[in-house]
Amino acid sequence: MATVLSPGKMLNVQFPHINQASLRSEILNKSDFFTAKKGELILNFNQVISSVPLVLSGSIKILRNDTGGREILLYYVRPGECCAMTLSSGLKEEASLIRAIAQTDVQMLLLPVRFLPDFSKNYPAWNDFVLHTFTQRFDEIIELVDDLSFHHVDHRLLKYLKEKSELLETPVLSISHLEIASEINTSREVVSRLLKKMEKEGILELARERIVLKLD
Prior knowledge:
This protein is α+β, with helices and mostly antiparallel strands and 216 residues long. The protein has eight helices and ten strands. The longest helix is centred in the middle third of the chain and has 27 residues.
């Protein structure tokens, strides 16, 4: 039987770089433990941000939309991470610029933004964590811009499928062509055509709303 860890144990395991015992105690005392089911909306566009998430298990996908209402996947928030966009908006007391959806079942700590100034003032380890979070997400956004600017859709599609497979730890992806198209910012028709091409090349197998990757 798998061991069920407490939020405190998960915080220690997933956030080893937050290595001040007093800081960990403060986070636990001031945060709310929160769970979300796969596919559940966690944060919506223009929603007031009262807390930032510290992911203990599972993963969250972060989406941004343009003026035409189209969405694109920015990045995933994994165990041991925080959403930089939420953290930035919370610090500036702004409404959410992103939509956050549970990619899998998720467990997290929700840390109220009203405590962030005190954390920054009193805990160097927290400032290091915030800096690491912004640096990591900046690198991911630059990579996304490069993909959109310099790489063809087939490259972006295969990269997207590989990343999702690694994240979910399975070669079998239950996802529609429309959802893929939305997250990589292209049309469903283009995704369907490229997936059929990849199937002919032996990269994957297609079934109804299911893709089986055959990558070594």
